[in-house]
């Protein structure tokens, strides 16, 4: 069999070499001629898997090592008998880390006690549920909004979007991009959404750029209907709105899910999906060579520090979002390069805490967050 693999997918080299002919190509070089006699494609979001690419090919399976699958024409695949899979939740812990870093930076800048703040989590899937969990551990009041889950599970733990807009000090978006239908999210954060706010919250978008209407958010920032905007996902990437960039509180180039752990998990899910479909005998395959953090040991003396200060120091040791914000603002034209050359970021379990003068209750909380 023959497998075409995007050469930017991390840790995948060597996975299939003993069972298939493998060709590594940049996503932009994956053409209809190349895939004509391929059995499978392993891709990222930069390869558009549609009729133009797939018509007349022998492709039977597509695996994308990403949560998003907007780049796959799923209707065409279904019609053509091509199976496909994405990697749901592969980078959910990475986005959790991104939001945690954001919250502690905002708390430092604005003098917040996080346990006095209310956060609205819009979209409570793989990512949103982890964000909600860590916010609850930080003592925040958490409002969950997820209409599909509410319909399936009942309304006991969910609230309306209107309640989020009325009560939240921070609103963080974790929805898929749905263009139409009952749960459409395209331009969810529009003029009506922003005019319905009561508390001038911080708005955070780390899901999909098109969930937020650029002009509406710019107008809301200028009119002080929101007190800040944190943006990782932008409309029209990589050609983002520079005025919106200047107005943002924190800006990053679509890297919230870019931990090495998340990338390794996405690759693993793709390899296993192809293995299961074709019966390749790779059930025990695991990626190797995942980079270690530069400073995996966190030494902290809690003497005289509050719980929030201790957890902030630990979280920001693993990932300080201000570095990405600064690098991005200096190199806006290098949007894609900043993503492609993103430095090593590891999630909480890759770090060990050596602590003294820290209450056992706080230590238990740090273990729950994921630290050793």
Number of strands: 13
Gap between N and C termini, in Å? Answer: 43 Å
- CATH homologous superfamily (4th level) name of the largest domain: NAD(P)-binding Rossmann-like Domain
Order of strands across the widest beta sheet? 7-6-8-9-10-11
Order of helices and strands: EEHEHEHEHEHEHHEHEHEHEHEHHHEH
Mind summarizing the main beta sheet?
Answer: 6 strands, parallel
**CATH class wording of the largest domain:** Alpha Beta
Q: Shape, please?
A: globular
Radius of gyration, whole Å:
21 Å
Structural class: alpha/beta
Q: β content, as a range? A: 5-15%
Average per-residue pLDDT, rounded, comes to 96
Key phrases:
Rossmann fold; six-stranded parallel β-sheet; five-stranded parallel β-sheet; globular
What layout of secondary structure does this protein have?
Blueprint: E1 2-6, E2 21-25, H1 32-35, E3 40-43, H2 51-54, E4 61-64, H3 74-80, E5 83-85, H4 92-110, E6 118-122, H5 126-137, E7 141-145, H6 147-153, H7 161-167, E8 170-173, H8 191-195, E9 202-205, H9 214-222, E10 228-231, H10 242-247, E11 250-251, H11 260-278, E12 297-301, H12 307-318, H13 321-330, H14 335-340, E13 352-356, H15 360-369
């Amino acid at each position: 069999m023959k497998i075409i693999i995007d050469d930017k997918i991390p840790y995948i080299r060597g996975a299939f070499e003993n069972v298939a002919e493998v060709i590594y190509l940049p996503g932009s070089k994956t053409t209809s001629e190349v895939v004509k006699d391929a059995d499978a494609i392993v891709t990222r979001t930069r390869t558009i898997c549609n009729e133009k690419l797939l018509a007349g090919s022998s492709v039977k399976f597509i695996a994308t090592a990403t949560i998003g699958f907007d780049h796959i024409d799923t209707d065409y695949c279904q019609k053509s008998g091509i199976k496909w899979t994405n990697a749901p939740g592969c980078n959910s812990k990475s986005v959790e880390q991104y939001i945690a870093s954001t919250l502690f930076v905002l708390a430092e800048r604005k003098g917040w006690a996080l346990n006095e703040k209310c956060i609205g989590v819009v979209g409570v899937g793989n990512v949103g549920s982890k964000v909600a969990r860590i916010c609850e551990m930080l003592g925040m009041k958490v409002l969950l909004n997820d209409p599909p889950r509410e319909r399936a599970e009942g309304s006991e733990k969910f609230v309306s979007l209107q309640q989020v807009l009325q009560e939240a000090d921070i609103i963080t978006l974790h929805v898929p991009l749905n263009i139409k239908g009952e749960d459409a999210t395209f331009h969810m954060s529009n003029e009506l959404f922003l005019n319905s706010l009561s508390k001038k919250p911080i708005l955070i978008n780390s899901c999909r750029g098109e969930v937020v209407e650029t002009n509406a958010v710019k107008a809301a920032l200028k009119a002080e209907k929101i007190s800040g905007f944190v943006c990782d996902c932008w409309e029209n990437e990589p050609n983002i709105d520079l005025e919106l960039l200047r107005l943002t509180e924190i800006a990053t180039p679509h890297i919230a899910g870019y931990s090495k752990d998340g990338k390794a998990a996405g690759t693993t899910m793709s390899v296993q999906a192809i293995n299961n479909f074709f019966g390749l005998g790779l059930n025990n395959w695991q990626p190797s060579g995942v980079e270690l953090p530069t400073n995996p040991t966190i030494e902290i003396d809690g003497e005289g520090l509050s719980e929030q200060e201790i957890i902030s120091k630990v979280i920001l040791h693993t990932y300080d979002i201000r570095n990405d914000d600064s690098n991005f603002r200096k190199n806006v034209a290098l949007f894609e390069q900043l993503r492609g050359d993103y430095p090593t970021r590891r999630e909480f379990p890759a770090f060990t805490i050596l602590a003294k003068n820290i209450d056992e209750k706080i230590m238990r909380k740090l273990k729950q967050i994921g630290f050793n």
